[in-house]
Amino acid sequence: MASIIYNSSITDTINHAITFDVDSFKFMLVGAGYVPDALAHFRRSDITHEVVGAGYVADGLPTIATVVTDLANARVDVSFGAVEWTNSTIDARGGVLYKARGASPADDELVAYVDFGVSRKTNNGLFRVTFSSPYRYQM
Fold first, then answer.
1. Tell me: the pLDDT tens digits for 70-112?
2. Residue 21: partners with Cβ closer than 8 Å, 6 or more residues away
């Protein structure tokens, strides 16, 4: 499986349902049982197999979006800050980035799925996720 951008996030961005420099975002961890579907998954309520474990916070942790407009290359780059669960016992295969509205999971717009490539585990340790590539829109 590879990392994906959910198709709905592009539409949600164009329609101003997602505004990266204003909205709040979270990153939640999922196990190997979750199969991302860029076409069919729209909201956090579509996500299955969220991890559980000591030190893990259900529904994920906040991450800050940084928006950089690059007019010379006709693009907008959106980067996200790292998230970490300390003293955790977690087994995760990937994670889901979403707009956090703070109400029902059916209200939270999906942005992207990050595939770790393999299951990552901690045993009363630090589980840290850093985002190495920006979420990029070409103009």
1. 889 888 888 999 999 999 999 999 999 999 998 899 999 999 9
2. 65, 67
CB-based burial, 82-103: b 16+ in 10 Å, e otherwise: ebebeebbbbbbbbbbbbbbee
C-alpha torsion sign, points 16, 19, 22, 26: positive
**Three-class SS of residue 73?**
helix
Helices of type H across the chain: 7-14
3-class DSSP state of 97: strand
Q: Which two tokens stand for residue 108?
A: 């939270």
Give the Cα separation of 63 and 83 in Å (integer): 6
CA distances from 135 to 15, 45, 57, 125 (A): 17, 22, 24, 29
pLDDT 10s digits, 27-51: 999 999 999 999 999 999 999 999 9
Q: Give the C-alpha separation, 76 to 82, whole Å.
A: 20
